[in-house]
Amino acid sequence: MILASGRTAVFAFCTAIFLALNAFAQQSAAPAVQWPEPDPETLPAGALKDTVLYGQRLIAETYALVGPEVAEKRMRYSGNNLSCQSCHLKAGTQRFALPLIGVYGAFPTYMGREDEVRTLEERINGCFERSMNGRALPVGGKEMKALMAYIQFLSTGIPVGTSLPGRGTPALALLNRAADPRRGAAVYKENCAVCHQANGRGQRKGTAGDAQGYMFPPLWGPDTFNDGAGMHRLISSAAFIHANMPFGVAGDKPKLSNEEAWDVAAYINSQPRPKRANLDRDYPNRSRKPVDAPFPPFVDNFPLEQHRLGPYRPILDSQK
Ligand code: HEC
Ligand code: HEC
Q: How far is the CA of 140 from the centre of ligand 1 (A)?
């Protein structure tokens, strides 16, 4: 009996050490920074809270406040009925889904598109003019202040000049071939059409003209992002889709294979959409132009088709 209980004691001791070591290992394997879940409702009542909440609504219900169907004509800043949240998922709080958490301290920053240092207000207006196919908000106006306050609130505690892992979208391995819109059409039919519809026009919550936006946003056609938007570049688009679509997948547990994501992005970005004027003026320093910018001019001699669909490795290698 004594022997047995002695053995039990030794066993229990070893188990305790094993569990402790295991817990330690798990702790050090966990991400260094917890993904924050900021909630504006926790702010003390007052003007700042109201402003932050208005900013949150502007992200989540853009169409109802500054969309093309709002009653007051001068408030029509977006040219389409998307919301910022159509791409910056969960009002900009979702990891790997172009989150706005931590973005406040990342600006001002150099941007190749204009070849200059840009402020956060200018970055927001970039999305108004391209992703929302609209016009810039006045800097210093009520709406821009609210967006700035909300993004600052989301970035509380994240040091200036740092980014959280989970910003943007996870990088997606490049294909060795050109992405194939025809294969992408089949991927679309199978995985996307149920929500975004076979014709890509999405599904409205109500009826056209009611400023209530979409249950499932349009991916092409007249009421979506224009051809100068980040989502119209194949690398950005494939990475977003891989990490976030079909809607509901977790960014680090994708459902689509890499190939499916590239092909379906190529299919979507081969469809008609609003055009932005003067795209040739983007990236005035041509050597800073991303390889997947789908419009000329380029410094290299690769065909436009290859910039649109890849393969990108040869273009990247030629830049070294
Ligand atoms: C159609 C998709 C889409 C919509 C809608 C959209 N954005 Fe974006 N946004 C993007 C993409 C893609 C990027 C990253 C682009 C790049 O590669 O630089 C981005 C980047 C940003 C950034 C910089 C983020 C960072 O990490 O540096 C801000 C801020 C931003 N958007 C604000 C907004 C606001 C505000 C709205 C609504 C008025 C909006 N966006 C609507 C796609 C979208
Ligand atoms: C279950 C419904 C559902 C499915 C299936 C789905 N999506 Fe989405 N998708 C959404 C919703 C909802 C949003 C916008 C999120 C929001 O408003 O909160 C969205 C947003 C998007 C966006 C950014 C917004 C825009 O208008 O461009 C793209 C791109 C996109 N989806 C592509 C795809 C692709 C490609 C597939 C198939 C692989 C797919 N989605 C499957 C529901 C879905």
A: 20
Ligand lying closest to the C-alpha of residue 257: 2
d(CA 112, CA 273): 24
Contacts of 29 (CB under 8 A, 6+ apart): none
Residue 168 DSSP code: S
Other beta carbons within 10 Å of 33: 12
Q: Which ligand is nearest to the Cα of residue 98, counting in written order?
A: 1
Angle value at C-alpha 263, between 257 and 266, nearest 5 degrees: 140
- The best mutation among 195, 237, 257, 262 to test binding of ligand 2, ranked by most ligand atoms within 8 Å of the C-beta, falls on 195
- What are 30-79's pLDDT values in tens digits? 445 689 999 999 999 999 999 999 999 999 999 999 999 999 999 999 99
* HEC string for 51-80: HHHHHHHHHHCHHHHHCCCCCCHHHCCCCC
Tokens at 153, concatenated: 């609130």
Domains of the chain: 45-154 (1.10.760.10), 181-318 (1.10.760.10)
Determine whether the shortest distance from the Cβ of 217 to ligand 2 is under 6 A: yes
CB distance 86 to ligand 2 below 6 Å: yes
The ligand placed nearest to the CA atom of residue 114 is 1
Nearest in space to 166 (alpha carbons), one of 250, 109, 105, 237:
250
Cα separation, 94 vs 291, in Å, equals 27
Spatial CA neighbour of 220 closest among 259, 267, 173, 257: 267
- Is the CB of residue 226 below 6 angstroms from any atom belonging to ligand 2? no
110 lines ligand 2 (CB under 6 A): no
pTM beyond cutoff 0.85: yes
